[in-house]
Amino acid sequence: MRVESFLRRAPSKSVSEDAIVLNEKINVYGVFDGATPLTPFQDEQGMNGAYLAANIFKDYFTTRYPENLSLVEGVVAANRLLKAHMEKYGIDQKKYEQLWSTCAAVIKFEKDGMISFAQLGDCMIIAEFQNGLIKVLTRDTVKDISYRARVWREELRKQGVRIPDEEYFQDITKQRFFNRTLANKPFGYSVANGTEEVGQFIQHGQVRGSELKAILLLTDGLFHRDYSLEETFEKIRNTSVSDYAIDLESHERKNGIRSDDKAGVMIRL
């Protein structure tokens, strides 16, 4: 088994809001993508809620995760730890825009030869099988969230709920505030944000390790506008996570595309 990883902050940020876990002791690997905050909170070290959420998950799966827990139970436990940290800092957890939150993709090599996976948000897991099939194992629940939010606002208006007209939501900040209210809702998106509902929205499953050639975990900063996730997998498989990421950064600079934090873990079996 060969493990490659890459983590780099976006040029516009002082620290990366992505994090990775490489826990070789118990064969747990993951990527986490903290959601950029909508409020100005910082802790004593000047870290915001996105950085803290991603790193609370990283630290949990690096040092606290008991090997006998399932990955789903581990995500739920890390989410409760996130809630406790927010309580410590007096975060009003009834206000979605104040919640620290992170997307997550974690895998665990089980002793019976299976590979378990658990996922939230738009951190993604892609596998290549021995027969050459490349399969995306998870669904990006953040994709098209602004469209679904607009549809939901229209439905609420039909129900008589007073909501500003769509001109109000042309402001991107107002859009984001509304989108955060859709966290861990059936018509919204999944994310670890300390709420109890998180447990209902964790995508999870297992694949047999002997059937795989490789498995890739990545945050959305490694998505390419011109490639599908399967094509992205092929690009990384044929080079490395770091080579692909550096090429993507160059493409983004040349085309004036905003660059995001980037995190990826490729495991070749």
TrEMBL record:
SUPFAM superfamilies: PP2C-like (SSF81606)
Gene3D superfamilies according to UniProt: PPM-type phosphatase domain
Pfam families in the cross-refs: PP2C_2
Top-rank taxon: Bacteria
Identification of the protein by name: Protein phosphatase 2C domain-containing protein
InterPro entries linked: PPM-type-like_dom_sf, PPM-type_phosphatase-like_dom
Organism: Neobacillus novalis
PPM-type phosphatase domain: residues covered: 27-235
